[in-house]
Amino acid sequence: MPQSLQKKAILFDFDGVVVNSELIYEEYTRERFLQYGIQIPPSEWSLFKGISTDVFFKLVKSRFIPDIDIRELREEWQIGLRETMRKKLAYTPYFCHFYQKISSYFKTALVTSSRREMVDWIFQNTLIENVFSLIVTSDDVTNTKPHAEPYLKASEKLGVAIQDCIVIEDSLRGIKSGKESGAFVIAITTTHSRHEMKDADLVIDSWNDLSLEKLWTI
User: Fold this and answer.
1) For 76-118, what is each residue's pLDDT tens digit?
2) Is there a domain that residue 133 lies in?
3) Sheet with 9-12, edge to edge strand ranges
4) Chain segment 40-71, per-residue pLDDT in tens
5) How far apart are CA 53 and CA 88, in angstroms?
6) Does 170 lie in the same domain as 78?
7) Alpha carbon separation from 149 to 126, 142, 197 (Å, rounded)
8) Measured between alpha carbons, how far is 3 from 126 in angstroms, rounded to an integer?
9) The domain spanning residue 159 has which CATH number?
Protein backbone atom coordinates (compact mmCIF):
# COMPACT_ATOMS: atom_id res chain seq x y z
CA MET A 1 0.00 0.00 0.00
CA PRO A 2 1.47 3.39 -0.96
CA GLN A 3 2.75 5.48 1.93
CA SER A 4 0.82 8.49 0.61
CA LEU A 5 -2.56 6.78 1.03
CA GLN A 6 -4.61 8.95 3.39
CA LYS A 7 -8.20 7.83 3.03
CA LYS A 8 -9.02 4.41 4.41
CA ALA A 9 -12.63 3.71 3.38
CA ILE A 10 -15.02 4.32 0.50
CA LEU A 11 -18.72 4.56 1.32
CA PHE A 12 -20.99 3.93 -1.67
CA ASP A 13 -24.55 5.01 -2.20
CA PHE A 14 -26.55 2.28 -3.97
CA ASP A 15 -29.20 3.61 -6.37
CA GLY A 16 -27.58 5.40 -9.29
CA VAL A 17 -24.06 4.70 -7.98
CA VAL A 18 -23.67 0.92 -7.82
CA VAL A 19 -26.75 0.04 -9.87
CA ASN A 20 -28.85 1.72 -12.58
CA SER A 21 -31.98 1.68 -10.43
CA GLU A 22 -32.54 5.46 -10.53
CA LEU A 23 -33.38 5.16 -14.23
CA ILE A 24 -35.71 2.25 -13.50
CA TYR A 25 -37.40 4.09 -10.61
CA GLU A 26 -37.97 7.15 -12.78
CA GLU A 27 -39.33 5.22 -15.77
CA TYR A 28 -41.61 3.08 -13.62
CA THR A 29 -42.80 6.00 -11.45
CA ARG A 30 -43.70 8.11 -14.49
CA GLU A 31 -45.74 5.21 -15.91
CA ARG A 32 -47.58 4.69 -12.61
CA PHE A 33 -48.38 8.39 -12.23
CA LEU A 34 -49.80 8.44 -15.76
CA GLN A 35 -52.15 5.62 -14.77
CA TYR A 36 -53.52 8.03 -12.15
CA GLY A 37 -53.71 10.80 -14.75
CA ILE A 38 -50.82 12.70 -13.20
CA GLN A 39 -47.94 14.29 -15.08
CA ILE A 40 -45.08 15.43 -12.86
CA PRO A 41 -43.53 18.76 -13.95
CA PRO A 42 -39.77 18.50 -14.62
CA SER A 43 -39.20 21.09 -11.89
CA GLU A 44 -40.67 18.72 -9.28
CA TRP A 45 -39.04 15.48 -10.38
CA SER A 46 -35.97 16.15 -8.23
CA LEU A 47 -38.23 15.74 -5.18
CA PHE A 48 -38.01 11.97 -5.66
CA LYS A 49 -34.23 11.70 -5.91
CA GLY A 50 -32.35 10.13 -3.02
CA ILE A 51 -35.26 9.79 -0.58
CA SER A 52 -36.27 6.78 1.49
CA THR A 53 -39.23 4.59 0.54
CA ASP A 54 -41.31 5.85 3.45
CA VAL A 55 -40.70 9.49 2.52
CA PHE A 56 -41.48 8.72 -1.12
CA PHE A 57 -44.95 7.32 -0.42
CA LYS A 58 -45.80 10.09 2.05
CA LEU A 59 -44.77 12.61 -0.60
CA VAL A 60 -46.89 10.92 -3.27
CA LYS A 61 -49.93 11.00 -0.99
CA SER A 62 -49.49 14.56 0.25
CA ARG A 63 -48.61 16.17 -3.08
CA PHE A 64 -50.23 14.09 -5.80
CA ILE A 65 -52.75 11.41 -4.70
CA PRO A 66 -54.24 12.59 -1.37
CA ASP A 67 -57.17 10.13 -1.34
CA ILE A 68 -55.06 6.97 -1.74
CA ASP A 69 -54.35 4.47 1.03
CA ILE A 70 -50.56 4.42 1.46
CA ARG A 71 -50.40 0.72 2.35
CA GLU A 72 -52.41 -0.22 -0.72
CA LEU A 73 -50.32 2.08 -2.90
CA ARG A 74 -47.05 0.71 -1.52
CA GLU A 75 -48.01 -2.93 -2.09
CA GLU A 76 -49.25 -2.30 -5.63
CA TRP A 77 -46.26 -0.13 -6.52
CA GLN A 78 -43.67 -2.55 -5.14
CA ILE A 79 -45.01 -5.57 -7.02
CA GLY A 80 -44.69 -3.85 -10.37
CA LEU A 81 -41.35 -2.23 -9.53
CA ARG A 82 -39.77 -5.52 -8.51
CA GLU A 83 -40.88 -7.22 -11.68
CA THR A 84 -39.28 -4.40 -13.67
CA MET A 85 -36.08 -4.64 -11.63
CA ARG A 86 -35.90 -8.38 -12.08
CA LYS A 87 -35.71 -7.78 -15.83
CA LYS A 88 -33.70 -4.56 -16.08
CA LEU A 89 -31.51 -3.98 -13.01
CA ALA A 90 -27.78 -3.84 -13.81
CA TYR A 91 -24.56 -2.39 -12.45
CA THR A 92 -23.69 1.13 -13.53
CA PRO A 93 -21.08 0.99 -16.34
CA TYR A 94 -17.58 0.01 -15.13
CA PHE A 95 -18.57 -0.21 -11.45
CA CYS A 96 -17.42 -3.82 -11.12
CA HIS A 97 -14.04 -3.03 -12.65
CA PHE A 98 -13.64 -0.04 -10.32
CA TYR A 99 -14.60 -2.06 -7.24
CA GLN A 100 -12.16 -4.85 -8.04
CA LYS A 101 -9.44 -2.24 -8.49
CA ILE A 102 -9.93 -0.55 -5.11
CA SER A 103 -11.19 -3.33 -2.83
CA SER A 104 -7.70 -4.43 -1.75
CA TYR A 105 -6.77 -0.91 -0.63
CA PHE A 106 -9.92 0.49 1.01
CA LYS A 107 -12.54 -0.70 3.44
CA THR A 108 -15.96 -0.36 1.81
CA ALA A 109 -19.58 -0.02 2.85
CA LEU A 110 -22.93 0.42 1.14
CA VAL A 111 -25.00 3.31 2.55
CA THR A 112 -28.51 3.51 1.14
CA SER A 113 -31.85 5.17 1.83
CA SER A 114 -33.60 1.96 0.77
CA ARG A 115 -35.00 -0.43 3.35
CA ARG A 116 -32.98 -3.54 4.14
CA GLU A 117 -35.75 -5.81 2.91
CA MET A 118 -35.54 -4.18 -0.52
CA VAL A 119 -31.75 -4.42 -0.68
CA ASP A 120 -31.88 -8.09 0.36
CA TRP A 121 -34.53 -8.75 -2.28
CA ILE A 122 -32.31 -7.23 -4.98
CA PHE A 123 -29.35 -9.43 -4.00
CA GLN A 124 -31.54 -12.53 -3.98
CA ASN A 125 -33.60 -11.91 -7.13
CA THR A 126 -31.42 -10.04 -9.63
CA LEU A 127 -27.95 -10.39 -11.11
CA ILE A 128 -26.58 -7.87 -8.58
CA GLU A 129 -24.28 -9.46 -5.98
CA ASN A 130 -23.44 -8.20 -2.52
CA VAL A 131 -19.73 -7.34 -2.44
CA PHE A 132 -19.99 -5.25 0.75
CA SER A 133 -19.21 -6.55 4.22
CA LEU A 134 -21.19 -3.67 5.72
CA ILE A 135 -24.55 -2.30 4.60
CA VAL A 136 -26.32 0.62 6.28
CA THR A 137 -29.97 1.03 5.27
CA SER A 138 -32.79 3.34 6.33
CA ASP A 139 -33.73 0.71 8.92
CA ASP A 140 -30.41 1.24 10.70
CA VAL A 141 -30.71 4.99 11.36
CA THR A 142 -33.10 7.44 12.93
CA ASN A 143 -32.43 10.10 10.31
CA THR A 144 -32.04 9.25 6.62
CA LYS A 145 -30.20 11.34 3.99
CA PRO A 146 -29.75 14.33 3.72
CA HIS A 147 -28.92 13.98 7.44
CA ALA A 148 -25.31 12.99 8.13
CA GLU A 149 -26.28 10.02 10.33
CA PRO A 150 -26.12 7.25 7.66
CA TYR A 151 -22.50 8.01 6.74
CA LEU A 152 -21.48 8.60 10.34
CA LYS A 153 -23.01 5.23 11.24
CA ALA A 154 -21.08 3.49 8.46
CA SER A 155 -17.74 5.03 9.42
CA GLU A 156 -18.31 4.10 13.07
CA LYS A 157 -19.10 0.48 12.19
CA LEU A 158 -16.04 0.26 9.93
CA GLY A 159 -13.86 1.70 12.67
CA VAL A 160 -12.64 4.48 10.39
CA ALA A 161 -12.82 8.19 11.22
CA ILE A 162 -15.26 9.95 8.90
CA GLN A 163 -12.47 12.34 7.85
CA ASP A 164 -10.67 9.28 6.46
CA CYS A 165 -13.68 8.26 4.35
CA ILE A 166 -14.64 8.98 0.76
CA VAL A 167 -18.37 9.10 0.00
CA ILE A 168 -19.55 8.45 -3.57
CA GLU A 169 -23.02 9.78 -4.37
CA ASP A 170 -25.31 10.64 -7.29
CA SER A 171 -28.09 12.59 -5.54
CA LEU A 172 -28.16 16.08 -4.05
CA ARG A 173 -29.50 14.75 -0.76
CA GLY A 174 -26.71 12.22 -0.66
CA ILE A 175 -24.06 14.85 -1.36
CA LYS A 176 -25.42 16.95 1.51
CA SER A 177 -25.40 13.92 3.80
CA GLY A 178 -21.80 13.12 2.94
CA LYS A 179 -20.59 16.71 3.25
CA GLU A 180 -22.30 17.26 6.60
CA SER A 181 -20.77 14.05 7.93
CA GLY A 182 -17.28 15.42 7.28
CA ALA A 183 -16.30 12.96 4.54
CA PHE A 184 -14.71 13.81 1.19
CA VAL A 185 -17.56 13.59 -1.33
CA ILE A 186 -17.28 12.44 -4.94
CA ALA A 187 -20.35 12.86 -7.12
CA ILE A 188 -20.98 10.78 -10.24
CA THR A 189 -23.20 12.27 -12.95
CA THR A 190 -25.57 9.34 -13.43
CA THR A 191 -28.55 11.30 -12.08
CA HIS A 192 -27.70 15.02 -12.04
CA SER A 193 -25.59 17.38 -14.14
CA ARG A 194 -22.14 18.58 -13.10
CA HIS A 195 -23.54 22.03 -12.34
CA GLU A 196 -26.20 20.64 -10.02
CA MET A 197 -23.54 18.68 -8.10
CA LYS A 198 -21.23 21.62 -7.51
CA ASP A 199 -21.32 21.13 -3.72
CA ALA A 200 -19.36 17.87 -4.04
CA ASP A 201 -15.58 17.96 -3.58
CA LEU A 202 -15.04 16.18 -6.90
CA VAL A 203 -17.39 15.38 -9.79
CA ILE A 204 -16.83 12.48 -12.21
CA ASP A 205 -18.75 11.30 -15.26
CA SER A 206 -17.66 7.65 -15.15
CA TRP A 207 -15.98 5.13 -12.87
CA ASN A 208 -13.15 5.18 -15.39
CA ASP A 209 -12.41 8.76 -14.26
CA LEU A 210 -11.21 7.47 -10.87
CA SER A 211 -7.77 5.89 -10.80
CA LEU A 212 -6.05 4.58 -7.69
CA GLU A 213 -3.50 7.33 -8.10
CA LYS A 214 -6.24 9.97 -7.97
CA LEU A 215 -7.82 8.38 -4.89
CA TRP A 216 -4.45 8.30 -3.13
CA THR A 217 -4.05 12.05 -3.55
CA ILE A 218 -7.40 12.94 -1.98
Assistant:
1) 888 999 999 999 999 999 999 999 999 999 999 999 999 999 9
2) yes
3) 135-136, 107-111, 9-12, 165-169, 184-188, 202-204
4) 777 777 777 767 778 888 888 888 788 878 88
5) 20
6) no
7) 29, 8, 21
8) 39
9) 3.40.50.1000
